[in-house]
Amino acid sequence: MENIRVIVQGLGAMGSGMAKMLLDKEGFDLVGVVVRRPKMAGKDIGEVLGREQLGVKISNDITTEIKEQKPDLVLQASTSFTKDAFPKIKEVIEQGVNVISIAEEMAYPHVRETELAKQMDEIAKDNGVTVLGTGVNPGFVLDTLILTLTGGCIDVDSIKASRVNDLSPFGESVMKTQGVGTTVEQFNKGLKEGSIVGHVGFPESINMVADALGLELDSVEETREPIISETYRETEHVKVEPGMVAGCNHIGKGIKDGKEVIVLEHPQQIHPHKEGIDTGDYITINGTPGVNMSISPEIPGGVGTIATAVNMIPHVIEASSGVVSMKDLPIPRAIMGDIRKIMGR
Amino acid sequence: MENIRVIVQGLGAMGSGMAKMLLDKEGFDLVGVVVRRPKMAGKDIGEVLGREQLGVKISNDITTEIKEQKPDLVLQASTSFTKDAFPKIKEVIEQGVNVISIAEEMAYPHVRETELAKQMDEIAKDNGVTVLGTGVNPGFVLDTLILTLTGGCIDVDSIKASRVNDLSPFGESVMKTQGVGTTVEQFNKGLKEGSIVGHVGFPESINMVADALGLELDSVEETREPIISETYRETEHVKVEPGMVAGCNHIGKGIKDGKEVIVLEHPQQIHPHKEGIDTGDYITINGTPGVNMSISPEIPGGVGTIATAVNMIPHVIEASSGVVSMKDLPIPRAIMGDIRKIMGR
């Protein structure tokens, strides 16, 4: 029985978490870690992760690593955008290796980058490998889980889902992209200029759900609104006075025949509990039967993304070649035993 | 583009519901209905279902129907047990046609009928067709949905889930198999004699979840206890005085190293609201992260089973051959458009 050989590319919070998760699972070999920063190269992966020495060194060169280590799959954790992910994915799949990317747009890449997605699909098929984009959202809560819940429905009239989370644990860059600590004027200016972005993933989730159900949408619309605080809230990185912005309420809508058939909300702010708001993942399906689901608190973003990406490794290895999405693969699941036994390798 | 051709076998509440659902969906042709009762033969299916004349007659002979109608799949809704379902499934798959069965034991048939499941798998593979057992439970709430929720988990320590429903709408036979309206003595006697059975499906759900996660269980245990009423409850079919039995609390446990790693509860009773109990589907995953999900009210049993079975038709047609279970197939989903387009036929 051969171990599943994995290289992790990118060693931020997500990459490190995925690397550690792989070290803790039976039947996986973390055979390489590739990062951009030259000064990291040559360091022992285990030591960098705060574990025992592994005898495997960090590298800056994915091509050589793949040649030497012959991985089954590369986990990529760097960008949010398909156009940035594309060259990195291409480099890997051209060498005949599967990829899982946590770039949000890669969850359903043809939506924003039709041409790049097509090229990727062709290269993947030519090389007999599979490319999947996933993560907690997009990839899990607001698409995979919604679809699964419709599985018990005869009819679906409309879907409304809301992912309410707490940004307090996050660092300065997240505060900036969500507009936390700005005035309303600064928030609106930031939106216009593109420095405040909200959530990346609504067009991906909405189109994935619609395509899987067979709803032919006329359009997908997005709005971003400031969450104006009524209380004083602060974190290590930001202070929000009453009247200032505590976060961004990002809403995505899938429209068909003038009707909002899919509405996804993702209000992201610091300390929502201060105003009596419970964090959670909430999905309501209006249909036959109706389904009214809540997960409270929400599935946490960081851990959820790490887990979703690693848990999909066996599914991606066994999938047919090309660019796939969560809707194409078997139901996700945790890995609690030797992955070689589970896969029957 | 060719329609998906389906025959429904069995025309009780489930079979009728599936037949109607198929009539209402684009891209499916209900090409036959096969029942046991001779007096039904020759009647128009549409008329029997309370719809327009369809020009398709009910038959008693599945073999001839398959020869004449060349269906892609047969939906079977008759028994709960694999040993009863086996000859009916065999008849269909030997003719090279896929089967979805709602027999509870068929959700994971090798658990109770190892030899029959093996034979079925071989016949299906020899004939290039797929056999799936599914339904709302087993098949959806206490296995597929649990597994999906673990998909965002790095680790799972234990799983507890509870499906709390209301038996009030059901008929006399369900009252009997759940012991509703008995005294405690009668209940315990019924359990011993096998007339009171509780839920059929725990070994299936528990083993499916454990196998998919890679938990190697030491044993699966089941207990059935009377739900003793403190209030007067009644339905059209049964009266329950205080002190009498309002239903059966059936519990299944998956045990590993002496620890209850999977605990599934299914208390089934009439009018649970009378004692302040909210019906619902509740899943708690103790792990990293923990997940605390509730669906309230529960996904209804009848409609949910009808929907789950029909919704899996495209997945079964596209699956590789053999006996499969929900854990092997892509995530379930409703069918809201022309199934030919969704499948790209």
From TrEMBL, chains A, B:
Keywords: NADP, Oxidoreductase. This is NADP-binding protein. The keyword Methyltransferase does not apply. InterPro entries: DAP_DH_C, DapB_N, NAD(P)-bd_dom_sf. One of its GO terms (biological process) is lysine biosynthetic process via diaminopimelate. It holds the Pfam family DAP_DH_C. Residues 140-343 form the 2,4-diaminopentanoate dehydrogenase C-terminal domain. The keyword Oxidoreductase applies. Coiled coil: none annotated. Residues 4-79 form the Dihydrodipicolinate reductase N-terminal domain. GO terms for molecular function: 4-hydroxy-tetrahydrodipicolinate reductase.
